[in-house]
Specification:
By secondary structure, this protein is α/β, with parallel strands linked by helices. The protein is built from nine helices and 16 strands. The chain has a seven-stranded antiparallel β-sheet. Strands 11-10-9-8-12-13-16 form a seven-stranded mixed β-sheet, sandwiched between helices.
């Protein structure tokens, strides 16, 4: 079980979670992600690692409530626990000194872009960040992005904050004003496609982080299959970052829309009685945690030597209490 040590709203429908996961925190790198399962009956969802603290043993996830699982996730608070966090998964971002780079992100995509932008800055690049959202109440991590950027531009579609317009409008202005050596785009598929269309004629190396549907996150299920340079690749093990000029965005969009109807039905069920669903989740996880603890205690007792008539209980040598990972609730870090 993985404990939530902090949970706070960032924007409308978007919440930040700090979760205890020491081994993932030590091994993660920018651009990687985790697969989360809230309970034993839940679906597996991929979430980008927005940050990590190896010393505290925590990872940071930013979750936007758009489907049943993410809606239920965002109902959790500090002290709650979730069943599985598997990772780090995927290939890390390519971090080296490119020169002048633009990091373009849309709303919750900023959580994907931020750790990579930070490391690109540390590598000696000039970082220009363009952060967008439909409106001000969907803007996230602006202060964090500003702290790792040489220049930061904020855009909203409705003009409620920053410049009115799309991130591609601002990117076009930046490209006209200075030479870019590298562009990273993270966010909605239409936005990433628009960025790719803008930079391709200028032959600017452009990378996109694909948010395809995933199940296991290890390349076995094929659910995250994407078409890159005319060949099938898996976003979970070959990505999630790919050369934007080689991605078939039509296929990506089609596959991401495959389960819209099932998702709609699931959301309606959740919204019919969200509190009951939350209590069910908590009840299942308490039961799972109790079962895991009982299994652990049984394993410990099996390794303790029994007392014999020649050895009174008080004289039985103390043995180290070494447990093995329980069958129930096995840690996937």
């Amino acid at each position: 079980m993985y404990e939530i040590v902090e949970a706070r709203p960032l924007a409308r429908g978007i919440k930040l979670f700090v979760i205890k996961a020491p081994r993932i925190a030590r091994k993660q790198k920018p651009g990687q992600f985790v697969i989360v399962r809230l309970d034993e009956c839940g679906e597996r969802i991929p979430l980008t690692l927005a940050d990590a603290d190896p010393e505290a043993g925590t990872i940071t996830l930013v979750v936007q409530a758009i489907g049943k699982t993410t809606m239920l996730f965002n109902m959790l608070e500090a002290g709650d626990k979730i069943l599985d966090v598997v990772g780090p998964l995927g290939k890390p971002s390519e971090v080296e000194k490119f020169g002048t780079i633009a990091v373009v992100s849309g709303s919750v995509g900023t959580a994907m872009a931020y750790p990579t932008a930070r490391e690109l800055k540390r590598a000696g690049n000039k970082v220009i960040s363009i952060v967008g959202a439909r409106s001000k109440d969907l803007m996230v991590l602006e202060d964090e992005v500003r702290a790792v950027s040489d220049e930061t531009y904020v855009c909203t579609d409705d003009g409620s904050y920053g410049s009115k317009g799309l991130v591609t409008d601002k990117l076009k202005e930046v490209m006209a004003a200075q030479k870019l050596d590298y562009v990273l785009a993270c966010g909605p598929v239409p936005m990433m496609r628009a960025v790719a269309n803008l930079t391709a004629p200028e032959k600017i190396k452009t990378i996109v982080s694909l948010n395809s549907i995933m199940v296991d996150g290890t390349g076995m299920c094929g659910g995250c299959r994407v078409l890159v340079n005319g060949q099938s690749q898996f976003a979970c093990v070959d990505g999630p970052e790919f050369d934007a000029t080689q991605v078939n965005f039509d296929v990506l969009t089609q596959r991401n829309n495959m389960y819209r109807e099932q998702e709609r039905v699931s959301v309606e069920r959740l919204q019919a009685d969200p509190q009951a669903e939350l209590e069910r989740l908590r009840r299942l996880n308490r039961k799972h945690e109790c079962a895991a603890e009982a299994h652990w205690r049984a394993q410990e007792q099996e390794q303790e030597p029994a007392a014999t008539p020649a050895d009174p209980p008080s004289q039985v040598p103390m043995q180290p209490r070494v447990g093995t990972a329980p069958v129930v609730g096995v840690a996937h870090e």
